[in-house]
Amino acid sequence: MNTPAYDDENIFAKILRGEIPSVKLYEDDDTLAFMDVMPQAPGHLLVIPKQPSRNLLDADPEVLAKTIPVVQKLAKAAKTAFDADGIFVAQFNEPAAGQTVFHLHFHVIPRREGTVLKPHSGGMEDMEVLKENAEKIRAAL
Ligand code: AMP
Fold first, then answer.
1. At what angle do helices 127-140 and 61-81 cross, to 10 degrees?
2. Closest ligand 1 atom to Cα of 102
3. For 81, which of 27, 42, 89, 140 could close a Cys bridge (C-beta 3.0–4.6 Å)?
4. Which of 116, 6, 115, 18 is nearest to 56 (CA)?
């Protein structure tokens, strides 16, 4: 089956248009990084290209080439900010693979030895906690 068409009413398109709020970490001409509102671990953030694509399968390789360095930049900052033992980078394509928001995004999740991740798309985090965690990541950028 072909990848379905991009729907610009998805929640990340609305964040990019400024129609709904987000806790922003980093922005350049091509890319935006912000806190995941349902973090699987403290510091869980998302990196998205501004150019619309549903996921990796329909993305322009040139956009990917601009996005991955930003994923690396945020991964390093999150590792420092949360004194993490490792960083989990995840990216899901289509519902069968766990995708729930249909604008390409990379999850960046700090991991500590012996700590179990919370479920994917679990509970909403308190906004003040997200803002405090974002401040730590911004300070490490
Ligand atoms: P995925 O299953 O890869 O499509 O994951 C989508 C992610 O987006 C989940 O981790 C959600 O917690 C997160 N998410 C959903 N809505 C928002 C939002 N408004 N702001 C930030 N993150 C969101």
1. 100
2. 4
3. 140
4. 6
Beta carbon of 99 within 6 Å of any ligand 1 atom: yes
Structural domains of the chain in order of their starting residue, each with its CATH number: 11-140 (3.30.428.10)
Apex CA 139: angle with CA 138 and CA 141, to 5°? 65
For residue 44, the ligand 1 atom closest to its alpha carbon is 10
Task: Pull the structure tokens for residue 139.
Answer: 């300070």
The two beta strands, 24-27 and 31-35, are antiparallel
Span 109-137, pLDDT tens digits: 999 999 999 988 888 999 999 999 999 99
Residue 107 designated active-site: no
- Alpha helices per DSSP H over the chain: 11-16, 61-81, 127-140
Ligand 1 atom 12: residue of nearest CA: 38
The C-alpha torsion from 11 through 77 and 44 to 113, rounded to 10°, is 160
pLDDT band at residue 71 under the 50/70/90 scheme = very high
pLDDT in tens, 82-118: 999 999 999 999 999 999 999 999 999 999 999 999 9
